[in-house]
Design a protein that fits this description.
Largest sheet: 10 strands, mixed
Strand order of the largest sheet: 7-6-5-4-8-1-11-12-2-13
Structural class: alpha+beta
Shape: globular
Length: about 675
């Protein structure tokens, strides 16, 4: 049996160029595009910040973060911000490309996998006139051995300048040019490569501790930018490799002062690249050196305190350069705290300082301790001091930064702009906060964690935030496995599982099961036990609802969300199709419709268009040809009988090709129904 569902986008869209609609308007650019400094720490726990947890902790060991605390007092504490996955590679990939882990090309533990050639935060801002730089750890370069052969080298993904570690594993060593005699393996002992644009420069970096090195380089970037390009905005992604193991000491005390004339300084000389060069792995912070702690604990606390000092130094540099009032600074962490030291015969556990805060879980867990990350947004005069407790996630930053910069937002982006939350201006759209991840290990058996979680297998994991509740499940065997449901606002430790406690929770359980299938697409490199579950229908939709078409004449480099300032709803009932096609213009068209599926089964969706396109069923991006010259794409999906919303954006090439979507039923379609299906699903 074969059926067809055809969307001819008569893109009367195109009538906008022949007098039936307003003339094209240039997108409004903010009077002053903000500079953006995004600071990402490696394995910094939510509980590692003084203002979040350490200052009020009753634990027998605590450490201090006075500069982060001061920053938090002046900025917005985003206390319910989440990483995309509880390990670094997928988190960084989702951050840079603006999609959550249900759509990302890099998932699970795919370290060093090439970031796809799609719009990134850097390329989006670069197209809007920004100078862009990545300083620090990368790990998304793909196969190769130098800047020319790595397919996804940072300068090929939108960054004008790169200074840092390319390979994931190199970021485990915090002295790139020096052999470390205390390491637990040769890989952690030996010098590693560090790159500056096309050149490998590690031999010039004797005695350089990377946290100091990356900060000094960032400060020098700020100074040079202010003196040479003060009228141009910048985006700097400062991506630290600490406090991730190896837990190594800095090489010297923190230099006196802060800012342009104090603190860490870039000297630019071989073997004296920065002013903190010294004997490696020797400086213990005096606040911690004589507390009776283990050496590993002193090392970790010193590492965190160093990062805190460096943030104070960076913010003072912005003040000294009079850039602070036009610079948005965001700090966050790629995942929860770690349990590695890479020291020979020495272990470290995050229990030492309860780096996971009041939560259960750590790095590689989907409980709060693994995925809720410390996040502060600071922008003097623009962001008022306060605390935000609404869920948001890494993929929202691309959309947010593009919004603030007046840049075009790629259609493939999953995020919403957080500008209303940051600036207290306008209505905040609800973000999608979603995690999927696989790890073959177990949650540690720490006494701080709930007994049932101690030593429990992780396996396939998933988390979804819906209607004020969190659904989470570990060691998933099939889509019918229930979510644990928590009210994390009142139960941050996830101790009281609400699943099955009421009819309301039963209904929410079903909506969570439905929602996780409606927001993601299958990735062959990261198979899931729920990949073959039918995408649930939405019974609330009208199968006979008319198609809605809107058009923006703004020309874009890739298929993009429509520009609100010049988009127009198109009345497709009043078109002369031949004339509309003949006078086709460029821009982006959005088509929203309802797909009526007669029976549950396997189908092919096929899209043909002259330009690139993104097609979503519900919120699952099933076809994405962003950046391609044309679209001839298909995808196999299992659909539940009923109505499904279609949302498609196509970039027009300015000719008479008619974009078309077909739905073809495939033979031997399985007659599976969604799970669980014990009762009729409530309308949404």
């Amino acid at each position: 049996m074969r059926s067809r569902y055809l969307l001819c986008l008569l893109v009367g869209l195109m009538v906008l160029s022949n007098g039936f609609a307003p003339a094209p308007v240039t997108a409004d650019t903010p009077p002053s595009q903000p500079n953006i400094l995004f600071v990402l720490y490696d394995d910094l726990g939510w509980g590692d910040l003084g203002c979040y947890y350490q200052n009020e902790s009753k634990h027998d060991r605590t450490h201090q973060t006075p500069h982060w605390d001061a920053m938090a007092a002046e900025g917005l504490q985003m206390r319910n911000h989440y990483c995309p996955a509880p390990v670094c590679a997928p988190s960084r990939a989702s951050l840079l490309t603006g999609v959550h882990q249900g759509h990302a090309a890099v998932r699970d533990n795919q370290f060093d996998k090439a970031l796809p050639d799609v719009p990134t935060v850097a390329s989006v801002l670069k197209d809007a006139g920004y100078t862009t730089a990545l300083i620090g750890k990368y790990g998304l370069q793909g196969d190769g051995n130098n800047a020319q052969s790595w397919p996804a080298y940072p300068t090929k993904r939108g960054f004008d300048e790169f200074f840092g570690y390319v390979r994931h594993r190199d970021g485990h060593n915090h002295y790139p040019a020096d052999k470390w005699p205390l390491a637990n393996s040769e890989a952690h002992a030996n010098p590693v490569e560090l790159w500056h644009n096309d050149d490998e420069i590690s031999s010039q970096l004797k005695g350089c501790y990377t946290a100091d090195l990356f900060t000094a380089k960032t400060k020098q970037f700020l100074v040079d930018h202010q003196s040479q390009s003060a009228d141009e905005p910048f985006f700097v992604f400062l991506s630290y490799d600490t406090p991730h193991a190896s837990i190594q000491y800095p090489a010297s005390p923190y230099p006196e002062g802060q800012g342009v004339n104090g603190g860490v300084q870039w000297l630019g000389e071989t073997d004296r690249m920065i002013n903190t060069v010294g004997t490696i792995d020797t400086y213990k912070h005096p606040d911690y050196a004589n507390q009776g702690w283990t050496d590993a604990e002193v090392r970790f606390a010193t590492s965190v305190r160093r990062l805190d000092d460096l943030m104070g130094d960076l913010l003072q540099t912005l003040r000294d350069l009079k850039m602070d009032e036009n610079t948005l600074v965001v700090l966050s962490s790629d995942n929860g705290p770690h349990s590695e030291s890479y020291l020979r015969d020495v272990n470290y556990k995050p229990t030492s300082f309860q780096s996971y805060g009041p939560f259960d879980g750590m790095k590689r867990d989907c409980y709060e301790g693994g995925i809720r990350v410390p996040t502060i947004a600071w922008w003097p005069g623009k962001i008022s001091p306060g605390v935000d407790r609404n869920p948001s996630q890494f993929h929202d930053w691309l959309t947010t930064f593009a919004d603030l910069a007046g840049a075009t937002i790629p259609a493939r982006a999953d995020g919403v702009s957080l500008a209303p939350t940051l600036l207290k201006n306008g209505e905040q759209a609800a973000p999608t906060t979603y995690v999927e991840y696989f790890n073959g290990g177990k949650t540690p058996d720490y006494n701080d964690f709930e007994p049932a979680r101690r030593g429990a297998r992780r396996g396939q994991m998933q988390a979804i935030f819906l209607e004020g509740y969190k659904g989470v499940r570990h060691n998933i065997q099939s889509h019918s496995d229930p979510f644990q449901i928590y009210d994390v606002a009142n139960d941050p430790g996830e101790a009281n599982n609400l699943a099955g406690t009421s009819a309301e929770m039963d209904a929410l359980q079903q909506r969570m099961h439905d929602r996780v299938l409606q927001v993601r697409s299958i990735n062959a490199s990261a198979p899931r036990p729920y990949d073959q579950a039918p995408i649930p229908a939405d019974d609330s939709l009208d199968a006979d609802a008319p198609m809605a078409v809107s058009y923006s004449p703004t020309e874009t480099a890739v298929v993009s969300r429509l520009n609100a300032s010049d988009s127009t709803v198109v009345d497709i009932q009043k078109l002369d199709v031949d004339e509309a096609l003949r006078t086709a213009g460029k821009g982006n068209v959005r088509v929203q419709s309802v797909l009526n599926v007669a029976k549950t089964g396997r189908y092919e969706l096929r899209l043909t268009a002259t330009g690139d396109a993104v097609l979503r069923l519900h919120d699952a991006a099933l076809i994405d040809t962003t950046g391609q010259s044309k679209t001839e794409a298909s995808v196999e999906v299992i659909l539940e009988a009923g109505t499904h919303p279609v949302d498609m954006i196509v970039r027009l090439a300015g000719n008479d090709s008619v974009p078309a979507l077909e739905l073809n039923e495939l033979p031997d379609a399985p007659q599976k129904s969604r799970q669980p299906a014990k009762k009729k699903r409530n309308s949404k």
